[in-house]
Model the fold of this input.
Amino acid sequence: MRIRKYIFIMLAMVACCGCDGFLDRQPDVALTPEQIFNKRATTLQYLATVYSQQPNYFTIQSNVNPWDSASDESSESFSNYSRCWANQMSHDEWTTGMNTLSDISYELPYRGIREATYFMENVNKCKELSEIEAKWLYNEAKFMRAYYYYYMLRIYGPVFMLGDDLASLDSGNRERDTWDDCVDWVCRQLDEAAAELPVEWENAATDWGRATKGAALAVKAKLLIFSASPLCNGNKMYASLVTKEGKHLFPQTYDENKWKKAADACKAVIDLQQYGLVGLVGEDMNTTFSASVAIENMKKIFCDISNEEIIWTRVGNMSGMRRYNTPKTIPNSSGDGWCGISPTQKLVDKFACANGYYPITGYAKNGKDPIIDSRAEYSEYGFSSFTHPYFNDTEQTYNMYVDREPRFYLNILWSGRKWYHGTNVELPIQLYSTGKDGEGSAGQNAPQSGYVAYKYHDKAVDLKRTWGNGSYPIIRYADILLCYAEALNEYDPTNSDILKYLNLVRIRAGVPKIGTGGIYAECVGDKVAMRTLIHRERSVELCYEQQRYFDCRRWLTAEEEFSGWVYGMNTLAANDAVGSDFWQRAKLVKDNGQYGKERKFSERCYFFPIPYMEAVIVKGFTQNYGWY
Done:
């Protein structure tokens, strides 16, 4: 990791910003260090540079964010490695020298860490800042420095902790810090930042994306839940990872108290009473929502610039999210859609039915045939007249998609559906290979599974005019509630808060409560059974939010969940007419850019290798398990 000795303001625009606001304030000329901190305006501009080292959240394509397609919830059609890093990741076809993600997942965060430390050293030199403003800015930089470490820890495991040191690692031998030491230091930094940051900024219209007390507490909670999970809590697979000083990089003794620490951290966010679930008033356990109202409420999370569910977000133009999920022939302001990213059948199967039961509990040994829970009243045979709760039109619909929970219709669009945008109603999309949106016409811009990921779309936006703006929640309140329920279940499985907060998420989503009317009543108080339900709820509520890849890794289930053939509908069928061969499960012809190949997730894939170029510069450190 080469860190420059001299600091200059970056000339590039802030990545992933499309709306005027605090994070857009970057200068267009180079300045000396003395000039930077002489004026309030340039000091704020430098802080924007600290923020700007975040990844571009506003694209679903895996050459920036591979996490969804590298998990079991999504597949990409792009064949070029430069466009589909999930190609390498999902087939375990990479080496330390091929880690094409290192610039974003390693170099960029370390650059942000260095910029943050430099800012913290110098911000108090600016005489144009009041004492309180200087303190806020200092702690914003402290928060961002801690966040960049958090970002890397989930990808690489233990890293090189620089503390307040501005020195480069180029100087020679150095060892990685242990996992617990890394986590403890980052948590202390977040606690310190949370103690000084405001609960909210005065001008929400321009201050979106800035660090707050809640954001600091939430990142801490997310780090502690990762640390408490099986991957990093007594994982014997890493027993051989010992530093030159004889320390285990990962703790080798399971510590149940880590779950309590995670739960306490989540509860600290809840107790701020600053956040809520969109559409739900407080913690009203008796509210019920129709499917259409539930979907409209949840759309606001991503389509409204500001809402009560957002703890920390980025706001910007949604072209990167929406264009990659718009079929080729849908008229739009960019010319055509690039719908090369699609939900897997496994994700489609995750969603509950309208009665609250999950229909698919697993698969036969062939990985294709579903094991169906009869309580869900679910069928994969035939078609029915069905009124879509978001589009409010009635069509003959494959029974697999009839009477599912509202989040299914929020996220999943299938072949034959009309496309609504603004006042426009487009002809039904055709996702079979010879259809107008299939591979024969769209090539790499065709969804291989026969489904479209619809989460970030807004039917009110006229795509002929604009892709529209929206919000990408880095952390939202529903995530924290589910983390809280998960952590409690692991050390106190009879705690009533487990059911309360798990059910609040389901209530807002228009899904019947667990324990009510006998729905999964047998699971209440059963740690293992409730763990399964909580994991399932996370996979549904947070799909396409870059969570699943990290969740399955921390649960140590990725080898099972991310390996094997990927399925969708039969896109090789001649058409998608009612009763055609399209409406049956089939292996994807092409998955993450490769034809006829199973996915593979091995033990070494749980953590990325420390990049080869780092190994060239920093001698003698302990590499991650399975990497050389």
Remarks:
- Residues 131-156 form the longest helix (26 residues).
- The first strand starts at residue 74 and ends at 76.
- The chain has 19 helices and 16 strands.
- Residues 1-29 have pLDDT under 50 and may be disordered.
